[in-house]
Amino acid sequence: MIHVDLLQIILLLLAIIAVPWMLFPKPFILKKLHSERFQGRTYKMLGTSEMDMDVEPDFARQHDEDFNFSEVFVHQMIHSIEFVLGSVSNTASYLRLWALSLAHSELSTVFYEKVLLLAWGYDSIIIRLVGLAVFAFATAFILLMMETLSAFLHALRLHWVEFMNKFYHGDGYKFRPFSFASLTDADD
Length: 188
Prior knowledge:
Blueprint: H1 2-23, H2 25-37, H3 58-66, H4 69-120, H5 125-166, H6 180-187
């Protein structure tokens, strides 16, 4: 049991360390790469009598416009926050499935112990048949429906939460409803 507790603490510490690890390196690495790439290019060129000294070269102006550290940092912060919220959301989603599974397990135990075993304790065949019928109905209709609901929720969670978290960005094109008129216009 001590090993499990230690593993949980280590995993929690790694999750806490992962947030600044996601947030800080990328903006600073990009800043360093950008400054190394354009090192020395911001100086004005030595002019001759034909060159105007107040005119800044194009590559120096591009250097100022290409990289904005605060913009990169805020963008990375947004991605880090989305990742943390996604992790919490996925954990909560799995916890809902786990709670439904526990409810299923406890309900099946209650039906077995309080209906079937209680009815089997009597010597009357009628009470035993009624107990068996109630247990069969409860098992077939309530527990199997709960298991179907659990499978549906798991599939929904996988499709909606996992898929939307990883792949969907919502940067597509505006919806235009289908129209046969647009097909005939395209043919002309």
